[in-house]
From TrEMBL:
Record lineage: Bacteria, Pseudomonadati, Bacteroidota, Chitinophagia, Chitinophagales
The name this protein goes by in its record: DNA polymerase IV
Gene3D superfamilies: 3.30.70.270, 3.40.1170.60, 5' to 3' exonuclease, C-terminal subdomain, DNA polymerase, Y-family, little finger domain
Species whose genome carries this gene: Chitinophaga ginsengisoli
Role noted for this protein: Poorly processive, error-prone DNA polymerase involved in untargeted mutagenesis. Copies undamaged DNA at stalled replication forks, which arise in vivo from mismatched or misaligned primer ends. These misaligned primers can be extended by PolIV. Exhibits no 3'-5' exonuclease (proofreading) activity. May be involved in translesional synthesis, in conjunction with the beta clamp from PolIII.
EC top class named in words: transferase
Documented EC number(s): 2.7.7.7
Cellular component GO terms held in the UniProt record: cytosol
NCBIfam families in the record: PRK02406.1
Protein keywords: Cytoplasm, DNA damage, DNA repair, DNA replication, DNA-binding, DNA-directed DNA polymerase, Magnesium, Metal-binding, Mutator protein, Nucleotidyltransferase, Transferase
CDD domains per record: PolY_Pol_IV_kappa (cd03586)
Domain UmuC: 9-188
Subunit organization: Monomer.
Co-factor remark: Binds 2 magnesium ions per subunit.
Residues bound to Mg(2+): D13, D107
């Protein structure tokens, strides 16, 4: 059995993915400050080119502010359907060749190449895969190769744009030492600020602080931070299809054709599993609706969609599928909703149409659900039990509590 210390892990990142796709399809955009995101005054930047970053622009910044920083920037709304399709193509190219891979987001992948040195040479093999992806997609790709996931990701960031880097086993601490603490994954402005106020500016200084002291400063995060600063990360590469779907269904105590009640159930169920998606920092690329009629015939219909984790996007697709599927006009015994084709990703992936207010609203809603439970905050149609809405049947679940 090969020790975790001697693993060989590659991290692939499609450089400025949305921007690169737009530049590939329109050569006139290359080398210019380009913003992808909401095109209204209240829109938000989903991605930006390296040229735009020089003006201090970054993802999730209000578009209005970004255009103040760089008035001559070019703004494109973006095409999530196209990006999702290309992400799938890259996934297929990696799946054809990699012994074990994890799709960590729409444009990032980890590959476990442990043991491959005996036959091919991990660096040679990884570099050839990078060239293959770039040839097939005409998109830039960067990668880092190291003994664990954390080091390989940091190496990728250092290799960008459109580069590659290998950190040899045993050189992890020396590689990290001169970097500012912000270079470590998951070290945000708040944590970096706490460290800098204590005189900790580089990873080297951080690595020399006793772990017990870091734990006293930052709690459990202090232990994780100490491990990172010392180049330690034993997290495995998780196969992409580990979790195939998130789903829920409801069998009614009495069969029904009350459309108002059924629509309310679809909203409730969609919101429930969409919240689960966001809790796990995942997005779905496929929505399925299931109906079981009173005669026990069961039918399903699914739809491939641009990756999303947003209630309003997913609910629209769920309702559309239900109306296409429900064609027998019989009493309904059961309905179900399933999200599949899951990938890691956060809400920023869906910023093309959303405003600052919409993003803030989702964050506030999820904070309330985290504190009190998902069922304590739902759309208005679900706040009142079905019987009070004139429903002729009741679901085999507890009545929904009112928002508190």
């Amino acid at each position: 059995m090969i020790s975790l210390q001697h693993r060989s892990i590659a991290h692939f990142d499609m450089d400025s993915f949305f921007v690169s796709v737009e530049c590939r399809d329109d050569n006139s955009l290359k080398g210019k400050p380009l913003l992808i995101g909401g095109i209204s005054d209240r829109g938000v930047v989903a991605s930006c080119s390296y040229e735009a970053r020089r003006y201090g622009i970054h993802s999730a910044m209000p578009m209005k502010m970004a255009l103040k920083l760089c008035p001559h920037a070019i703004v494109r709304k973006g095409d999530m359907e196209k990006y999702s399709q290309l992400s799938g193509e890259v996934t297929e190219l990696i799946a054809e060749k990699a012994p074990l891979y994890e799709k960590s987001s729409i444009d990032e992948f980890y590959l476990d190449l442990t043991g491959m040195d005996k036959y091919f040479g991990s660096m040679k093999w990884t570099a050839e895969l990078r060239q293959h992806i770039m040839k097939e997609t005409r998109l830039p790709v960067s990668f880092g190769l190291a003994s664990n996931k954390m080091i390989s990701k940091v190496a990728t960031n250092e290799a960008k744009p459109n580069g590659q880097m290998e950190i040899m086993f045993g050189e992890e601490k020396a590689f990290l030492a001169p970097m500012p603490v912000e270079k470590l994954p998951m070290v945000g402005k708040e944590t970096a600020g706490q460290l800098r106020r204590r005189g900790v500016e580089t990873v080297k200084t951080l690595s020399e602080i006793p772990v017990t002291l870091l734990e006293a400063w930052l709690g459990k995060n202090g232990i994780s931070l100490w491990n990172k600063a010392n180049g330690i990360d034993e997290s495995p590469v998780v196969p992409f299809h580990e979790q195939k779907s998130i789903s829920t269904e409801n069998t009614f105590s009495s069969d029904t054709i009350d459309m108002q009640f059924i629509h309310a159930e679809l909203v409730r169920m969609t919101e429930k599993i969409a919240f689960e998606l966001r809790q796990q920092d995942k997005l779905t690329g496929c929505v399925t609706v299931k109906i079981r009629y009173s005669d026990f015939e069961t039918v399903t219909k699914q739809m491939t969609i641009p990756y999303s984790g947003s209630d309003h996007v997913l609910l629209e697709k769920v309702k559309e599928l239900f109306h296409k599927l429900y064609d027998r006009r019989l009493l309904i015994r059961l309905i179900g909703v399933r999200f599949s084709h899951l990938v890691q990703g956060n809400y920023q992936i869906s910023l093309f149409d959303d405003t600052q207010e919409m993003i803030a609203l989702y964050q506030a809603i999820d904070n309330i659900k985290n504190r009190f439970g998902w069922q304590y905050l739902m759309k208005g149609t679900n706040a009142v039990p079905p019987a009070k809405r004139g429903a002729v049947t009741k679901p085999a679940v507890m009545p929904y509590p009112k928002v508190r």
